[in-house]
Amino acid sequence: MKKTQLVNAKRRKLTDTRKNNLELILVVAEQRFAEYGYSGTTISAIADQANLPKSNILYYFKTKEALYKEVLSKLLLTWLTHMEEMSADKHPSECLRHYILQKIKQSKIHSNGSRIFAAEILHGAPYLREQLQTDLKDQFERTCQVIREWIAKQWMNPVSPEHLLFMIWSSTQAYADYGLQMSMMLEKTDLEDNDYEAGAELITRMVLKGCGIKLL
Fold this sequence. Notes:
CATH topology of the largest domain: Tetracycline Repressor, domain 2
Helix content: over 70%
CATH class of the largest domain: Mainly Alpha
Number of domains: 2
Low-confidence stretches: 5-11
Number of strands: 0
Order of helices and strands: HHHHHHHHHH
């Protein structure tokens, strides 16, 4: 192998290692923040659980606050992406069904992140307020406009776009925020795939029927 190839191979390996470490840090941090809260979580504890040196954590995130904000921002970015996928030229039966399915999926995959987000909001969003008032607000207004255009095309009944989104958010995120309570009522250790599927189907039917949207 030529010297250039060896150098490139080492660079790729280093890049992969850094990427894997970053993903591991975020996963562990999400779990710790969800279980112990912001004040009860330390960089040292995250490093210990991730089996990485503390200096490695600080290489990516200079402070605990920066790491906490990244966990929240990553989740919010995913939610914004799914909202952005809705467009006025697509039928609401397709868009809303997909959106609800994705929100339920995120409640399953990132239940810890959803609980951190809920706790942040309950405490007045001290670390996320700016992003909520800019990124989320901008996308929220664009999505509301999409819904208004669906209404104008008579593809759905005239409803409040704002409160429709609020209702979808609360019902889908409940499968993360209140997952333990749901599991206890169902006499299960954890929610199972069929529980998330049943929830998504029921929420979708209620939204589509309640908004007068005909299935395609």
